[in-house]
Design goal:
401 residues, nine-stranded mixed sheet, 34% helix, 3 domains, Rossmann fold, six-stranded antiparallel sheet
């Protein structure tokens, strides 16, 4: 007797008929309205004239439970504390990222339809529509996991499913030093940055650890301060006693109820924030954020996608121009609002690290540019020509940095 394929950590029933057997159990449970408990699954198996041992019954019950109320075959991967991303590109092509780059797993779906069903069910759990009329969804699941799914024919061949795991506890700065994200001694500079209430942005590409670093830094904010977060998808989880979390909302099927990040930033300004945080600056909200940081809201911060720290002013200029703010006005506000850019990268081995720290200054034409102050070093940050400027900004709180 041969074993069935591995689906998650639960083997399918033997003899190669696992899918047909489970389909019969699903139909029986649907018609009876019963929950997929082991006793009910055993009853459904008997109704089909099948007699299996306890292990097979428990395996079938677990597979059904994970399909109906969990994340199906992906559940053991999402439960792995080392996994940050789970990516499905085909029924037998399930990838994970454990911090060292993508790895192909042995987990497999029965067919492309099973991937589509899981994506649609997860989207429904998150309150999103995912069908032929709207073949993609971007949402947050109840446990905080970030979901993105694209259905065929937009995704060629099979539903493309991406899950970004948000851990319930933020990393501490010490853990980021131990992991190599922050070089030895770099934590003192970051602590001084928060203590000096400087406004800053964390930049980098997708998956470089921007949210992870920002969550850890917000945990350093004094307990007497009020942090107000405005996010497109609530991913920041700072370890802090006073956090207000705001999240955008898409329009319903009638086109009503849309809440944008721009709306949230405006509302956050009315909530007496000591620290205003925009999870990701990527649209018109940049105008309100810069305005807020120029009206006494010190210590504000956020993340932005950029190829390098030097590209951040151009990135913000593009966003501001699209929002109707002219170039000169944006650079004037930027110069007064923002002090530091922390740029993250992933190296060839997949490790995330702070590659550079830049300070901002205005050139002779009045435009803002960034100046490298610190660069990654295995033993410590290497000082660049902007270090004196950064040290002056931190001087009151940096001690002997």
């Amino acid at each position: 007797m041969r074993a069935g394929p591995v689906v998650g950590n639960v083997p399918a029933p033997p003899d190669g008929d696992g899918s047909a057997l489970l389909d019969g159990v699903r139909r029986w449970l649907a018609e009876s309205g019963a929950e997929p408990t082991p006793a009910r699954v055993a009853q459904a198996l008997r109704a089909q004239g099948r007699v299996l041992g306890d292990a097979e019954v428990l395996g079938a019950a677990e597979r059904l439970r994970s399909e109906l109320v969990g994340s199906g075959p992906l559940e053991p991967l999402l439960a792995d504390p080392a996994v940050t991303d789970v990516l499905v590109t085909a029924p037998d092509r399930v990838w994970v990222d454990r911090g060292g780059g993508l790895e192909l797993t042995r987990v497999a779906f029965p067919d492309a339809s099973a991937v589509r069903r899981l994506a649609q069910r997860l989207a429904a759990v998150a309150g999103r529509r995912l069908d032929d009329a709207r073949p993609w969804a971007d949402a947050r699941l109840p446990d905080g996991t970030r979901l993105h799914a694209v259905l065929p024919p937009v995704a060629i061949g099979c539903t493309c499913l991406s899950l970004r795991v948000v851990r319930p506890r933020a990393f501490t700065l010490g853990e980021l030093v131990a992991a190599g994200t922050v070089p030895p001694g770099g934590d003192r500079i970051l602590r001084a940055l928060l203590a000096a209430r400087l406004s800053f942005l964390v930049s980098g590409g997708t998956g470089t650890g921007k949210t992870t670093l920002l969550s850890a830094l917000l945990g350093l904010v004094g307990p007497g301060e009020r942090i107000v977060l405005a996010e497109d998808s609530a991913e920041l989880r700072p370890e802090h006693p006073h956090v207000v979390r705001l999240e955008t909302r898409p329009a319903n099927q009638e086109g009503a109820g849309l809440v944008t990040l721009e709306d949230l930033v405006r509302q956050a300004l009315r909530m007496r924030p000591d620290r205003l945080v925009v999870g990701e600056v990527r649209g018109p909200e940049v105008v309100h954020l810069l305005a807020a940081l120029n009206t006494g809201h010190e210590g504000g911060c956020g993340t932005v996608h950029a190829n390098a720290a030097a590209d951040v002013p151009a990135r913000l200029e593009a966003l501001g121009t699209a929002a109707g703010l002219d170039r000169a006005a944006l650079h004037s506000q930027l110069a007064a609002a923002l002090s530091v850019v922390l740029h993250l990268v992933r190296d060839r081995a997949g490790r995330r690290r702070i590659n550079e720290v830049h300070v901002l200054e205005r050139d002779s034409a009045g435009l803002v540019r960034t100046v490298p102050a610190l660069r990654w070093g295995a033993e410590a940050f290497a000082r660049e020509r902007g270090w004196e400027r950064l040290r002056d900004l931190l001087r009151s709180d940096a001690g002997d940095v």
